[in-house]
Amino acid sequence: MTQTVAVLGTGKIGEALLSGMIRAGWHPANLLVTARRPERAEELRTRYGVDAVTNAEAAKRADTLILAVKPQDMGALLDELAPHLTDDRLVISAAAGIPSTFLEARLAAGTPVVRVMPNTPVLVDEGMSVISAGSHATPDHLAHAEEIFGGVGKTLRVPESQQDAATALSGSGPAYFYYLVEAMTDAGILLGLPRAQAYDLIVQSAIGAAVMLRDSGEHPVKLREAVMSPAGTTISAIRELENHGVRAALIAALEAARDRSRELASGTN
Ligand SMILES: NC(=O)C1=CN([C@@H]2O[C@H](COP(=O)(O)OP(=O)(O)OC[C@H]3O[C@@H](n4cnc5c(N)ncnc54)[C@H](O)[C@@H]3O)[C@@H](O)[C@H]2O)C=CC1
Ligand SMILES: O=C(O)[C@@H]1CCC=N1
């Protein structure tokens, strides 16, 4: 039987996922979206050929609902959905921090809930989506979530207790790399290169390094050692990174992201 999937709250991550599902072969007729503003609903209809409906209608028509609103909007959305949802629907939440128990407490008893933390590279089919089961989710429900998110990148199952950490690593992860590229491009300008050239040099270095990390099977230390010639340029740079505590700063940064994910658990702050 063909499944209907609805994306509720089609903002940045919801739209990225929707576009990826269509690229992965989902027929627009089997996809529904919801949006707060009518102009946004119209934009999504035109861009993807999907039906834009109310949250209540999505709850009635879809077999699987992907909730992609902000953590702070999740309580209100669940209140809107609950009267229309039966416990044979799969509810997938992509919201940072919100535990599956938050959803289970507001939906019909026994509703299967799966928590997923994707990231924006789903836009280019290189996403990383971390998946955990709520209390009533079966292996089939997890497999269905993997089918959806696996079409736009890699998936990994973790116990829900590790979701806040995963959010800090891969959910937020792309932003750290963009930040590094920005800073290194500034450095290129300081060294006298035009911005566009500096940017190209850094982005291509990032792509090359990422592919080697993924495909070489080598530990990152080994890969770095192969770049660092004795008494050369690279070790001079690495010494500065160590002097400025960049490793410690990254550890502290990811810890802060994990802590913020925990704070978002109540859905109010
Ligand atoms: N942006 C990212 O890289 C990632 C975001 N997430 C999670 O995804 C969720 C959404 O994040 P973004 O896409 O960045 O935010 P966003 O603000 O771009 O998207 C949220 C959308 O939900 C809509 N919305 C809110 N309440 C609604 C309602 N009751 N009915 C219909 N639409 C409603 C908003 O109008 C907005 O378009 C958050 O919970 C976030 O933690 C997860 C992984 C990565
Ligand atoms: O910054 C955030 O809260 C969301 C969750 C992971 C990525 N973006």
UniProtKB/TrEMBL annotation:
<dbReference type="InterPro" id="IPR028939">
    <property type="entry name" value="P5C_Rdtase_cat_N"/>
</dbReference>
<keyword id="KW-0028">Amino-acid biosynthesis</keyword>
<feature type="domain" description="Pyrroline-5-carboxylate reductase catalytic N-terminal">
    <location>
        <begin position="4"/>
        <end position="97"/>
    </location>
</feature>
<feature type="binding site">
    <location>
        <position position="55"/>
    </location>
    <ligand>
        <name>NADPH</name>
    </ligand>
</feature>
<dbReference type="GO" id="GO:0005737">
    <property type="term" value="C:cytoplasm"/>
</dbReference>
<dbReference type="Pfam" id="PF14748">
    <property type="entry name" value="P5CR_dimer"/>
</dbReference>
<keyword id="KW-0963">Cytoplasm</keyword>
<feature type="domain" description="Pyrroline-5-carboxylate reductase dimerisation">
    <location>
        <begin position="160"/>
        <end position="264"/>
    </location>
</feature>
<dbReference type="InterPro" id="IPR000304">
    <property type="entry name" value="Pyrroline-COOH_reductase"/>
</dbReference>
<dbReference type="GO" id="GO:0004735">
    <property type="term" value="F:pyrroline-5-carboxylate reductase activity"/>
</dbReference>
<keyword id="KW-0521">NADP</keyword>
<feature type="binding site">
    <location>
        <begin position="68"/>
        <end position="71"/>
    </location>
    <ligand>
        <name>NADP(+)</name>
    </ligand>
</feature>
<comment type="function">
    <text>Catalyzes the reduction of 1-pyrroline-5-carboxylate (PCA) to L-proline.</text>
</comment>
<dbReference type="InterPro" id="IPR008927">
    <property type="entry name" value="6-PGluconate_DH-like_C_sf"/>
</dbReference>
<dbReference type="InterPro" id="IPR029036">
    <property type="entry name" value="P5CR_dimer"/>
</dbReference>
<comment type="similarity">
    <text>Belongs to the pyrroline-5-carboxylate reductase family.</text>
</comment>
<dbReference type="Pfam" id="PF03807">
    <property type="entry name" value="F420_oxidored"/>
</dbReference>
<protein>
    <recommendedName>
        <fullName>Pyrroline-5-carboxylate reductase</fullName>
        <ecNumber>1.5.1.2</ecNumber>
    </recommendedName>
</protein>
<keyword id="KW-0560">Oxidoreductase</keyword>
<dbReference type="InterPro" id="IPR036291">
    <property type="entry name" value="NAD(P)-bd_dom_sf"/>
</dbReference>
<keyword id="KW-0641">Proline biosynthesis</keyword>
<dbReference type="GO" id="GO:0055129">
    <property type="term" value="P:L-proline biosynthetic process"/>
</dbReference>
<comment type="pathway">
    <text>Amino-acid biosynthesis; L-proline biosynthesis; L-proline from L-glutamate 5-semialdehyde: step 1/1.</text>
</comment>
